[in-house]
Amino acid sequence: MRQKNLSTQLAHEIGRRIVSGQLAPGEVLPKAEVLSQASGVSRTVTREALKALEALRLVESHQKIGTLVRPRSDWQWWSQEVLRWSTEVTPNRAFLVQLTEVRMAIEPAAVALAARNALDEDILRIVENFLRLEAALRGEGDWAKADYEFHDSIMLAAHNELMLSLVRMLRDALLYSRRHTMPLMQHTSPEASVESLALHRAVMEAVCQRQPSRAYRSMFRLLRAVSGLVHRLTEEEGTAWA
Amino acid sequence: MRQKNLSTQLAHEIGRRIVSGQLAPGEVLPKAEVLSQASGVSRTVTREALKALEALRLVESHQKIGTLVRPRSDWQWWSQEVLRWSTEVTPNRAFLVQLTEVRMAIEPAAVALAARNALDEDILRIVENFLRLEAALRGEGDWAKADYEFHDSIMLAAHNELMLSLVRMLRDALLYSRRHTMPLMQHTSPEASVESLALHRAVMEAVCQRQPSRAYRSMFRLLRAVSGLVHRLTEEEGTAWA
DNA sequence: AATTATTTGTCCGTATGTATG
DNA sequence: CCATACATACGGACAAATAAT
Fold first, then answer.
1. Would you kindly state where each structural domain of chain A is located, as residue ranges?
2. B142 Ramachandran zone, left/alpha/beta (phi>0; psi -120 to 50)
3. Least enclosed by CB within 10 Å: which of A63, A202, B59, B203?
4. CATH number of the domain at A90-240, out of 3.40.50.970, 1.20.1250.20, 2.60.40.10, 1.20.120.530?
5. What are the distances in angstroms from CA A18 to CA A29, A66, B133, B150?
């Protein structure tokens, strides 16, 4: 790991152990002093690491009891950290299914919201980004980057910080997850195709014409195509999926 | 505030100041030593508080620079803390609108997912909880509690920890927000009515018959009724809404 | 390009608080 | 009520990084 704080490093280490189940809910961690010596850091650093994990609701501390792992239902699932750790520990197909389910549930509705709340300037920016997507397909520019920014420009149009944050986390988690499960296709973009562009265009048009339910359906179709593609690719790697 | 850790208390204080905008993004906090003296705690405690805020992505620290407030788009919006602080600081109508928008977008899809993934035992539990809701309307038991558990039993049927966590946070935030903006109706449940029960029944039936799209529409109708009700109540308090 | 000042990062020793038995 | 075991809190010291000089 690229070195940051010692406390941040340690928090990630322990966090991973918790999410992986190596430290199970209800279990008490070794006391701070032992934890410190095991990692070769001071008690101060350990305490700071535990504070971070407490903010992520992975653990809670009590005097005389110690620090214990909280039940999974309490965890701060919607944080970059927990999402990442969850995709890292054991190439977790089940978790990928959950991520995909949530995405299929949320993004179409989010795009519909964008169609409802978009201002003129938002629409201008969306069109610009779509043109860049077209260019990428012709080989001018990176598809993955253009794709990300296209979707982002739509989400900005929803004018809803909560929704924006949610969808970004979701997309980042899925990208991270894919890089993890299929490290070989890092720089290929199998999604780049004429059909894919058509699906993107449909979404763009629906939002720009401020038609929420059409936007919803277009986005759903786009997602189904993408997840179907990923599905097939992961299947080829040997493991059945759903 | 009910006393917990000093560091937790301090984290909440500073967190509120940040979310309220009193400490703006880009701004650097007073250095740790000053912060400590101002609150009458040791530097250790202050550092632990800042670590928690760092885990919530509200701040980041750099040597020689200090600790500075991160841009709003980086914040960990989907955490109990940030959600609570956001509803606390200035009875924030705009934030309530955002919460409602997200709820209308997510919950119907979440219920549809439940209809797709429900097992027999889930359905049994859902029916039980619906009966308790009926009883509550007849005066036997607390409507608010029964309502919460009814919806929870449905979300459990989705068998998706991410979705469960998300919807719970959302519902808790909205409840908290309502208690804040209309403290007077704390224990009245204006939602309890024959019509409301009928809407709940429709959701229950759709899920139990495993009909996702019917479940989606039923839940949407239910939410529209509730938010319409809240809408009218808050309007009566004087301020226009959307 | 080297030096200094400033602020976080890290360590340690010790004392207090709190729940268990 | 006492002893135990853990987190909690304090204060002082030095290390490390980096902006400013």
1. 2-74, 90-240
2. beta
3. A63
4. 1.20.120.530
5. 10, 16, 37, 31
- Fold for the domain defined by A2-74: Arc Repressor Mutant, subunit A (1.10.10)
Query: Which nucleotides on strand D sit less than 7 A from a protein beta carbon?
Result: 4-13, 16-19
Q: For residue A12, give the chain B residue with the closest CA.
A: B55
Q: How confident is the model at residue A116 (pLDDT cuts 50, 70, 90)?
A: very high
Provide the sign of the torsion angle of the four alpha carbons B185, B186, B187, B189, taken in this order.
positive
The reply to whether B198 touches chain A by the CB within 8 Å rule is: no
B50 has a pLDDT exceeding 90: yes
Give the nucleotide at minimum CA-to-C1' distance from B4: D8
| Chain A touched by B163 (CB under 8 Å) | yes
Angle formed by the axes of helices A194-208 and A120-137, to 10°? Answer: 170
Selected residue with higher pLDDT from B8 and A179: B8
Residue B99: list chain A partners with CB under 8 A.
Answer: 162
pLDDT digit string, tens, across residues B116-172: 999 999 999 999 999 999 999 998 999 999 999 999 999 999 999 999 999 999 999
The percent of residues above 90 in pLDDT, for chain B, comes to 79
Tell me what the pLDDT averaged over chain A comes to: 91
Smallest CA-to-CA distance from B82 within B176, B212, B6 is with: B176
- pLDDT band (50, 70, 90) for residue B238: very low
Quick check: B50 CB within 7 A of strand C? yes
Min distance A139 CA to chain B CA atoms (Å): 31
Instruction: Give B20→chain A minimum CA distance, Å.
Output: 15
Contact criterion met (CB below 8 Å) for A201 and A130:
yes
Task: For B71, name the nearest residue in chain A, comparing CA atoms only.
Answer: A161
Q: Which nucleotide is nearest to A31 (CA to C1')?
A: D6
Is any Cβ of chain A less than 8 angstroms from the Cβ of B118?
no
Å between A25 CA and D3 C1'? 30
